[in-house]
Amino acid sequence: MTSVQALTAMLKEMEARIQALGSDMQKIKKQIRLLMEENDKLREELARAYGQAGDSTPARGGLKNLWDLYQQGFHICNVHFGRIRTTECLFCEAFWDREREGGR
User: Fold this and answer.
1) What is the pTM for the complete model shown?
2) Where in the chain does DSSP place strands (E)?
3) Which of 19, 30, 59, 90 is spaced 20 to 30 A from 1 at the CA atom?
4) Can you tell me where the transmembrane regions are (predicted)?
C-alpha cells in the first residue's frame, strides 16, 4: 500500500470514528434533554406539594409530602431541591430542625 493510499485509509477510518462520535453525542444530548425535562417536572411537583406553585399558603399535608419525598431519597432543601440524595444532607436536616422548632 502506498503512503497516499495509507493516508486515505486513515482519513476514512478517522471520518467514520468522527461520525460515530457525533452520533453518540446526539444520543447523549437527547438523553440529557429528557432528563432535564423530567427533572423540571419533578421540581414542579415538589413545589406544588410544598405549596410554592403560585400561592403563598402551604398545601395541606405539604410537610408530610416533603418528609415522604425525603425518605424516598430526594433533597427537600432550597440548595438541592428535587435532586436525588446519595447521602444525608445537612441542609435538609437543618430544614427539618427549623420545622421541629416551629418554623423559625
Assistant:
1) 0.44
2) none
3) 19
4) none
